[in-house]
Prior knowledge:
The complex is a heterotrimer. By secondary structure, chain A is mostly helical. Chain A is built from 13 helices and no strands. Chain A has helices spanning about 1-30, 35-40, 45-55, 65-75, 90-125, 130-145, 145-160, 175-210, 215-220, 225-255, 255-260, 270-275, 280-310. The radius of gyration of chain A is 24 Å and the shape is globular. Chain B has one domain (about 30-40, about 80-305): MetI-like (MetI-like fold). Chain B has 13 helices and no strands. The two termini of chain B are about 40 Å apart. Chain C is about 30% helix and about 20% strand.
Amino acid sequence: MAAFLARRLAQSGLILFIVIFLTYWLMGLMPGDPIDLMVQSNPDLTPADAARLKALYGLDQPIITRFWNWLTQALQGDFGYSRLFGQPVWEVLWPRLVNTLILMLPVVLLSIVIAVPLGLLAARKAYGWFDYTVNLASFAGISVPPFWFAILMIIGFAVTLNWLPASAAPPGDAGLMDHLRHLILPVATLTILNVGTYLRFMRAASLQTLRQDYVRTALAKGVSETRLLTHHVLRNALLPLVTIIALSFGSLFSGTLIIETIFAWPGMGKTIYDSVLGNDYNLAMVGFLLATATTLLGNILADLCYGLLDPRIELEEVKLGG
Amino acid sequence: MAVEYSNPGLPTHDGFWRQFARHRLALLALALVVLLALLALFAPALEMLLGLDAGAADLFNRLAPPSADHWLGTDEAGRDVFLRLLYGGRVSLMVGIIAALLAALLGTMIGLIAGYFGGWPDGFLMRATDAVIALPLLPLLIVLAAVDPQKLGLPDSIAQSELFSLYRIILIISLVGWTTVARLVRAETLSLRRREFVIAARAQGLGSPAILCRHILPNVASPIVVATTLTIGNVILLESVLSFLALGIQPPTASWGNMLNNVQDYLWDAPMLAVWPGLMIFVTVIAFNFLGDGLQDALDPRARR
Amino acid sequence: MRWIQLTCLLLTFIISGTAWAENKRLVIGISQYPGSLHPAYDSMMAKSYILGMTRRPISVYDANWEDVCLLCTELPDFDKGTAKYVVTESGKEGIAVTYSLDPKAVWGDGTPITTRDVMFTWEVGANPESGIDNFEFYRRIEKIEVIDDKTFTLVMNRRSCDYQGIPGFTLLPSHVDRPYSDDPREYQNRTLYEKDPTNPALWYGPYRVSNVQNGQSITLVRNERWWGKKPWFDEIEIRAIENTAALTANLLSGDIDMIAGESGLTTDQALAFERRHGDDFQFIYKQGLVYEHIDLMLENPILADVRVRRALLQGIDRDAISQQLFAGKQPVAHGSVNPLDSVYNPDAPRYDFDPEAASRLLEEAGWTLASDGVRRNAEGEKLQLELMTTAGNKTRELVEQVLQSQWKKIGVDVRIRNEPARVFFGETVSKRKFTGMAMFAWFSSPKHIPLTTLKSDQIPNEENNWAGQNYTGYAKPEMDQLIEDMDLKCEADQNQAAWDRMQELYATDLPVLPLYYRANPYILPKDLKGLVPTGHQYPSTLWVENWHRAP
């Protein structure tokens, strides 16, 4: 167990390094720089100003040199300043990390609360009208273009009905209730987009368990429906669900860019996007580092859960899919 | 004379169709996908028939409501929305299908090699798969979509082509989308190579490539087909997300994604303009999802009711 | 019955009255969040917009596009002796201009604004290591002579007729920010504007920053130390919502009160919104100094022929674009100088939409129509051009597709290829890699001399390290001379003559196809009064103390 964990962590470390280097290198392949845009839109600036600023930020040096400089400093715990925000990288990232968690945790919890019972019931009544409805709903959630759906939600609930605020960010001096009110719409939107995946997995896993011989035996022995579902099926079906949740950490962490943009809620997705396009290497690298680490940790967690919940499975053989 | 071991292969046609036809939504989805594909395929013919030019802007006929000439009205540049939707569909479907097929091809090769040969190739390939899965997908796509093709050494003729954004999207998506198929194929191959018919074939002196093609591949086809179908839908969705970030297919080439993105500003003025491409994406993606679901039910013996 | 009516009336009055009194808060939506609040770094409109309410430049251009003092008492003038030509200590032909700061002017903590702040600002600005945006401006200041606490003389090492204003001089508070400038390289990160942006000592406008929600919003409250007219609003919140569809939705749902014209919607977006919600808000469109045009690559053999350039201009219906896409709010441009600018020449040649004339010109230039509708020359080469612009700018993408359709009708095959803005400006345009046409905008100030865009020594190339903005490669000795005259012959007649001839030459040679001037659309609450759009880069917020609500 410990050896497995140690090996996985070492591998993850290597992957992390490769990802970081790769993104640094790729960002170096993006032509131009926001400084050029500044010169374009401000008559007071001259191209000489642009060249001087680029040199000041070290943008005229070869990419390998810059990566090495960054790496040695980062390893000493100095992640530098964000160029876009003029603040230390962690000071920029910390509130955004919190923002992401504020959005992500309710979404994951809500998704589980919805997906578990509905998935179970759908599997129990497989191919009935209830199952069809659940299927249709979960596929609808997966299939809708996120931007389009988010705007529809805003038009519906904020503009037409005027029940909820249109953006996630409350006024500067808002209280807790106001904060919560502003979060309802984005959380609901993300949950609807997200729950389908969980639901599909929950249903498939429950279905598979229901087909097992011991479940049939239990049914034949007259075990009550509720007891069967909660005791036998649920326990077995939770396994793949836990896996998929752990695996979805990464995409929830950095993949909610669209929702963050529409609801004007600065989280990790938006920050990474802005930093990449703004050539803010320091910020982008730490953003990528966090996003990749979250995914990798999610993967390890998924494997561990698999091992813990179902000791029959050899840890090395566990792979996603199927 | 060696004993003939039967190769389980794909289910028989009859069995497959009977099974598939029971999934009513999947059947409906199949019909829809075929219809969309046909419409997209015959877009130029329809254009001729209607006597319109899908690309011609008409400043004096912007945002027109539906009429006999323009069945769904005209867009912000005065172009026929119906025809644009068909042309957009051509691009969106093409991107989806080609990217999904490329990803499947790549994934199958990697999965076959890893599963069949085991040992260090397996170890290496699976670690690589882990690495790709660990990539933060969306931010990485953003970086890739902004990279200068000329700095990567691509010739100008490709890098400056009008359709470059299209190639780029297909390539990027297939480069990160192969992992699911690779894992599925590897797992199946791993169990197949210990089966009697494979061992028998090897005993008969068949080479690895022949065994892979003749005996293993047909048996791992089902999960590939299912995964590829599901991927098509995802790719179409992903293209719309990239379009939202202005990193997708570039105008004047129409795709559902960029059509949807372009009409954001006419939301209050001409909401139907946003409804159509959004609906097309939604319906197509959901259809591919149901199709995949039905195929899974019909192809996977374990999932038989 | 009467008393019921009366009570009702009274009640309504009281309720609306209280609502009225409470509504001294204004929430402004903008489409961009300023990275930092330091006035000298990262210039962007969203930042100037906010800083307009919290600090005041020494002088700016006002809504009539004239130099005015905001912090100074009087503009320098040759007649009054506050401006005079000098030979600087380094032996350059220079100019010395004297300003006096408003005697009442104080920072938000009550400390008077003095020449010490002027010296401090110059010290930071002229140090290349501090990384200020417009270092070139500070470098032109060779010396500052301090006369007393409020009066100082700038000795510039370059003469220019445009000597009166110094809007680029962004005063910094020496009494609180000086400790952070000991290490110029680190100043940018250590300055109080980053560390403690809500410190009142940093601000000296009608408002000061009271709350910063990074990436979301900035709240301003009244600056009690403000010496000018008392502003009407108690509190102003500026909220950044990047997605414009979401921005308009926020306006409709009441989450924001207005959308800033300077950094909000584009004109076509605002027009689309107005068509549906025109009655609910006040719409102001102010055309201005953002000049949308197409730079032509003059080294392309096709475009080297002035007849082709003229044909291209006559082949497009700019009036229809202006009318149909922008409801006339973004007027057709016939040259680089806006008609609202005092130096505008109304008699310069202009080209109206005339496809026949365009076709004739193309025939004349040897391009004959082939059966596939595309013109070819004697060698059989197609009349094919590439049109590029910034990807993701929907207005430009729309306009370029319209242009493509119109050019197709006169037999010109135009291929569209767009790139993200940073690539387009950072490589393609600035290194002159575009092969045909590049569509973008120049942001200029009133009476802006096209020094970097039209002079022949400003053509970017490898040797000059891609300096200069003359991307078309336009080189004409007469133009070079005119530009020098505009800059140095300050006598009104001579100066105007140079401007007139420059505009004439520009319209004759057509190195650039002028398209239209962009407008800033302001979407305001119906009861907001006193906001006067400027149409240039000095935002309407510089006069925020005049804003108020009135039925």
